[in-house]
Request: fold
Amino acid sequence: MSLRLSTVILPYVRWHEGGRSAWQRAEQLGFHTAYTYDHLSWRSFRDGPWFGAVPTLTAAAAVTDQLRLGTLVTSPNFRHPVTLAKELISLDDISGGRVTLGIGAGGTGFDATALGQEPWSPRERADRFGEFVPLLDRLLTEDSVTHEGVHYSAHEACNIPGCVQRPRLPFAVAATGPRGLKLAARLGQAWVTTGDPKLYETGTPEQSVQALRAQTEKLADACAAIGRDVTELDRILLTGFTPDRGRPLESLDAFVDFAGRHQELGFTDIVIHWPIPDSDFASEVKVFERIALEAPAQLA
Reply:
């Protein structure tokens, strides 16, 4: 199977000052999917412009035709399944069925406290994620849902006519722990990882590959436990968070080498960050565009 190449466009640029043109250029370059981060603010971008994911993707849907669109990733940190489902159904309709929902348990960043709550413990994040995803699945596939949960409830929540994509838009579940991997196996159409964060500062690319191999094996085990073929799931690597950092984007050959090593692990999709000057995602635009245009054929 050919490796698909996608990008993630951070929503830090005003729409009429470069935001729109980036999404249109992503389609022209032939990317399979263009994602954006679903945060209220993020890391070093906190003190500058940052726009909402769903309005951004809605605008992107209006100025593109074939490009798939999605989040990497949405989390329960500031979302509720009932309101999120309504927004996703609307976005899927506007885009003509081109939306993928990347979804994860969330972390301890700015989103975790923006609504005034204390950050959830890892156990509570996992508990909430385990309730959030199945309820969202129901909300996107059933006309009316009533559910009384520990963390999330719905009372006669109506979502007619449902998604354009049937039975619903695909979930790309970000997970590395056992509970999250079980969710990916049960409800995901794709699985997302950024690698092992413990290796980012002091690990080596070789150690990262070994860690990713172990993650893919655990995903396969989770699928086997419920009788599902792991090859039914797309396996997505969001780059930029492994010890390789930005080196794969330094040249076409460097990227093809990096992507090929991860393709051998079973990854079906590689996601690279749209160039952002003076940031961790800085890269040469000409090299980035050459990778987009030429790398997929070399990885077929």
